[in-house]
Amino acid sequence: MVVDIYKSAFEYMRKNFADSILFIISSAVLGFLSVALPILGAIIYSYFYPNVVSWYYTKVTGENINPDYKTSFLSLLIPNLLVSIGIIVILYGTYYTPVPIEYTNLSELTNYKYISYNPTLIIVGWAIIIISIILSILLLYTFYGSILGKVNKLSIYFEKSLILFAYILLYSIIASLILAIIYIIYVLTISISYGIVIFFILLTIFVVPTVTLVALLKAKEL
Questions:
Q1: Tens-digit pLDDT profile for residues 54-87
Q2: Residues spanned by the domain of 50
Q3: In degrees rounded to 5, what are phi and psi of residue 130?
Q4: pLDDT per residue over 9-50, tens digit each?
Q5: Is there a contact between 134 and 122 (Cβ–Cβ < 8 Å)?
Q6: How many CB atoms lie within 10 A of CB 65?
Q7: SS3 for 63?
Q8: For residue 211, what are the CA distances in angstroms to 25, 38, 96, 168, 197?
Q9: Residue 181, SS3 per DSSP
Q10: Are 26 and 52 in contact (CB under 8 A)?
Q11: H or E segment at 3?
Q12: What is the number of domains present in the chain?
């Protein structure tokens, strides 16, 4: 049941709060590297993140699992590399490829001026990023299944991945709504200035680890 998985994920996180904080910090560092170091950061993230996820799952559940790190690595590497390539294309199109634009001046002579970005490259970059997002959704079960030792080859499990995505999305929406209510209460009763800070702190502390556990617990059922 959906509610049972959500409840179990929250209970695991609550009872292992210190380990959850370590998981958040590790995930944040790897996520930062994946963005700050295009290509190289994607490789580092894809290699180490499965280890962090498997450590966290075994730590909070006490279960013995046999992860296939090669499959989990590849299931992250492909979409992450596409994201890095998309970002590089966007940056190159924004800052390094001015495009000549034809225009007519008052003397009716045709001249050219340059705009400081290349719209075509920017569109291509965003298209690559969108493709990577779609691919990462389609590889959800491949990643979490390989962490649990249920998947040992790189493949797209369309239905199972969409089920995982639905569970993750629904949980994220519910958790965000609950935290938004807490944020509104905090703003109205205590402070407007720090309300948004509190919201994002709670979002990070409670949602990041529990979303991961929700995905793993559901993948275990599939």
A1: 999 888 888 888 888 899 999 999 999 999 999 8
A2: 2-221
A3: -60, -40
A4: 778 787 887 888 888 888 889 988 888 888 898 899 999 999
A5: no
A6: 14
A7: coil
A8: 15, 26, 39, 6, 21
A9: helix
A10: yes
A11: helix 2-15
A12: 1
